[in-house]
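// run 5 | inverse folding | seed 20
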């Protein structure tokens, strides 16, 4: 009996530790958003748009500040009337790929006007060099894939938005100066060597009643909070606990049956 009690205690301890570990490791992701404030302007690819972008790649040009930054995630603003997912890439100012093969995914609980992020594995982190220009680009899926072409943005100062870019038919990028404009919009999560590590909350915002007025002043906190919807950690932890509890029940039943047999 003592052995049985010890076994049950050990199993329950494992359940608690496993659940706590899963929740803590996914509650926050390394990196901070570069956006302090954004005002959405220039709604495109909506009903009545006389010059929609049918398909292709476009995005924003950013210039890195005085320190290198390490990118830990990339983001694109979610709209329910846009495609549910978008591919994302980063190039340098010459068009050479820095990051590719990443998809930013929207979800049923995603909130209009909030960013969704794709978090990179540590092996996928990329460094953007101080003083250099890079293009943050994403794709389009037809004339009803909504975005904004003239949103004004304030950043942390670690980088700044300086222009718009789009991929031409010959494979080169067309650049147009647009200081302080975040095209689409897009964002990155990043860290700076030597600074205290910052994490991005992955708790879903409690206020999902975002109206058009609120969308015009989406700030960094709101855009980051919604990112957690792509990490269904609580169901995973509960599922693991349920499996272990089922095992415990089986052990108890087997133990009782064994006693009766004896």
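// decoded
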């Amino acid at each position: 009996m003592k052995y049985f009690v010890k076994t049950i205690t050990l199993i329950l301890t494992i359940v608690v530790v496993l659940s706590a570990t899963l929740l803590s490791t996914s509650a926050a992701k390394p990196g901070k958003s570069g956006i302090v404030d954004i005002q959405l302007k220039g709604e495109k690819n909506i009903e009545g748009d006389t010059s929609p972008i049918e398909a292709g790649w476009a995005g924003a040009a950013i210039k890195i500040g005085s320190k290198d930054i390490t990118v830990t995630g990339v983001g694109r603003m979610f709209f329910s009337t846009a495609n549910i997912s978008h591919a994302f890439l980063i190039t340098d100012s010459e068009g050479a790929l820095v990051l590719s093969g990443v998809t930013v995914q929207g979800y049923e609980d995603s909130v209009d006007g909030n960013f969704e992020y794709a978090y990179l594995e540590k092996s996928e982190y990329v460094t953007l060099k101080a003083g250099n220009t890079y293009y943050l680009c994403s794709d389009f899926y037809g004339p009803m894939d909504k975005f904004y072409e003239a949103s004004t943005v304030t950043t942390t100062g670690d980088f700044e938005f300086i222009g718009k870019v789009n991929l031409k038919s010959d494979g080169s990028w067309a650049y147009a100066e647009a200081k302080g404009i975040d095209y689409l919009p897009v964002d990155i999560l990043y860290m700076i060597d030597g600074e205290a590590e910052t994490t991005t909350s992955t708790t879903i915002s409690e206020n999902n009643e975002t109206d058009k007025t609120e969308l015009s002043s989406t700030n960094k906190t709101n855009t980051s909070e919604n990112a957690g919807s792509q990490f269904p950690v609580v169901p995973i932890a509960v599922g693991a606990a349920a499996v272990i509890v089922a095992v415990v029940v089986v052990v108890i039943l087997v133990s009782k049956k064994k006693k009766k047999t004896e």
